[in-house]
Amino acid sequence: MSRQVRAYGKYLMSSTDRENSDGLLEKLIAVNRVAKTVKGGRQMSFTALTVVGDGEGKVGFGYGKAREVPVAIQKSMEYARKNMSKVELNNGT
Predict the structure, then answer these.
(1) Which long-range contacts (CB under 8 A, 24 or more apart) does 26-29 make?
(2) Which residue windows are transmembrane per the record (predicted)?
(3) Could you tell me if residue 81 is inside a domain?
(4) Which of 54, 58, 69, 78 has the most other CB atoms within 10 Å of its CB?
(5) Which tens digits make up the pLDDT trace of 10-41?
(6) Could you tell me the CATH number of the domain that includes residue 58?
């Protein structure tokens, strides 16, 4: 499997899938920076969208928000694992 890395703003995203200890494939779809204007200035936070699946018809997606990118990704992965549903496969796709 070739590994491609692309820049997304200041952050690097890998286009390869990761497999965790549960046997689930984890895919990071997008990371977005969000700014909220408050009295003292702008408050920056990040959102992450991830998809988790087992390759056999179970898939889940998660959307996490946090002040730092790794925490947002971790939260979205947790939400994706909790939000799993069965999808019917047709000819393996």
Answers:
(1) 26/50, 26/51, 26/52, 26/77, 26/80, 27/51, 27/52, 27/53, 28/73
(2) none
(3) yes
(4) 69
(5) 444 455 467 666 788 889 999 999 999 999 99
(6) 3.30.160.20
Token pair for 13 = 């995203």
Cα(55)–Cα(79) distance, rounded to whole angstroms?
Answer: 18
What is the spatial distance between Cα 25 and Cα 62, in angstroms, rounded to a whole number?
Answer: 13
The DSSP symbol for 72 reads H
Taking the model in full, what pTM does it have? 0.73
Q: Model confidence over 34-75: pLDDT tens digits?
A: 999 999 999 999 999 999 998 888 999 999 999 999 999 999
